[in-house]
């Protein structure tokens, strides 16, 4: 009797499973769909361009995952999801892993992540939420970022990071052990004029100041924009480096600089003002050149006077 019950249970499960599995005339397998377009389609028809397609229609869950992979920590290397493509020269683009999260129209709520990575508690210093490595001998970038209005470009070299568009560090310090380089080739410029010497640089007042906390700064930005603080930004209370806010800082007020050198002041998206401090270098050098010319002229006059005095003293001694 137990064998009969076991057989009936197995048969029932098999019938239900078969009822959910459909095989098309192209030998595509569909689970939860009657018209599988991919070789394996789960939850939806899929796409003939995809070998496997997974769709989760459960919108009531906190996590709506099309595909979830979990690696075993017992392996030397564990992959939750691995994508591997043998490059095809005839293909317009080859993707090892492709992530897309987009809406055809702008939304006023929610968050969108094309690729979302979390890493924690491995060997200290070796936790990478997103890791990009450029190999081979051809030029490119380990991480390439682009904003609307720009497109893919030939990097012209090998870079760890390459960006088409503005790059912003919202909180914290940008560290570089070897300095920064700004493009300044004469072939990239036009309307070139020698800077006229001006004493306007002396009208600026150098100041010493302390920075407000991140929360205080967010309050200011909210007042400027007229928007309330977002919950995700209000969680940040201060700078990652505690010494940064404790230290004295030296510089100018953007509002003061704007009155004298408006071309050196930029308005950020949040409405606050920023200064192009590098732009002061040629202005300072131009003023130093003028001062040096003045000093050289005065030195020449002093030398001439010293020679005249020496000549007079020589005559008086006779």
- Largest beta-sheet characterization: 4 strands, mixed
Q: What is the approximate shape?
A: elongated
Low-pLDDT stretches are 11-19
Count the beta strands.
10
CATH class membership of the domain at 170-318: Mainly Alpha
Please tell me the overall pLDDT. 82
Structural class assignment: alpha/beta
Number of helices: 6
What is the rounded distance between the termini?
Answer: 145 Å
Q: What is the fold-level CATH name, i.e. the topology of the domain at 170-318?
A: Arc Repressor Mutant, subunit A
In words, what does this structure look like?
This protein has helices at 2-20, 214-225, 231-234, 242-246, 254-260, 280-316, and strands spanning 21-23, 29-31, 40-42, 52-54, 140-146, 158-164, 207-209, 249-251, 265-267, 273-275. It is α/β, with parallel strands linked by helices. The protein has a four-stranded mixed beta sheet with strand order 1-2-3-4.
Keywords for this entry:
318 residues, alpha/beta, 12% strand
What is this structure's SSE topology?
Layout: H1 2-20, E1 21-23, E2 29-31, E3 40-42, E4 52-54, E5 140-146, E6 158-164, E7 207-209, H2 214-225, H3 231-234, H4 242-246, E8 249-251, H5 254-260, E9 265-267, E10 273-275, H6 280-316
Describe the structure concisely for a colleague.
The chain is of the alpha/beta class. It has helices spanning 2-20, 214-225, 231-234, 242-246, 254-260, 280-316, and strands at 21-23, 29-31, 40-42, 52-54, 140-146, 158-164, 207-209, 249-251, 265-267, 273-275.
């Amino acid at each position: 009797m137990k064998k009969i019950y076991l057989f009936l249970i197995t048969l029932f499960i098999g019938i239900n499973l078969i009822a959910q599995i459909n095989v098309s005339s192209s030998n595509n397998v569909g689970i939860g769909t009657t018209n599988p377009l991919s070789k394996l389609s789960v939850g939806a028809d899929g796409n003939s361009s995809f070998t496997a397609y997974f769709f989760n229609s459960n919108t009531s869950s906190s996590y709506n995952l099309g595909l979830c992979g979990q690696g075993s920590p017992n392996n030397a290397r564990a992959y939750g999801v691995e994508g591997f493509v043998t490059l095809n020269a005839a293909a317009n683009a080859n993707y090892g892993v492709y992530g897309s999260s987009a809406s055809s129209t702008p939304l006023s709520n929610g968050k969108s992540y094309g690729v979302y990575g979390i890493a924690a508690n491995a060997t200290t210093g070796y936790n990478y939420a997103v890791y990009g490595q450029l190999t081979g001998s051809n030029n490119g970038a380990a991480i390439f970022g682009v904003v609307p209005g720009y497109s893919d470009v030939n990097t012209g070299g090998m870079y760890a990071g390459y960006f088409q568009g503005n790059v912003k560090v919202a909180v914290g310090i940008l560290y570089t052990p070897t300095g920064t380089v700004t493009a300044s080739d004469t072939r990239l410029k036009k309307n070139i004029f020698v800077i006229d010497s001006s004493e306007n640089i002396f009208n600026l007042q150098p100041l010493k100041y302390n920075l407000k906390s991140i929360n205080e700064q967010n309050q200011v930005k909210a007042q400027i924009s007229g928007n309330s603080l977002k919950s995700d930004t209000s969680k940040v209370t201060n700078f990652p480096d505690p010494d940064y806010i404790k230290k004295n800082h030296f510089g100018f007020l953007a509002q003061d600089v704007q009155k004298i050198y408006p071309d050196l002041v930029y308005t950020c998206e949040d409405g606050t003002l920023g200064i192009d401090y590098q732009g002061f270098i040629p202005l300072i050098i131009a003023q130093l050149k003028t001062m040096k010319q003045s000093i050289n002229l005065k030195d020449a006059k002093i030398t001439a006077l010293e020679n005249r005095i020496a000549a007079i003293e020589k005559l008086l001694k006779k």
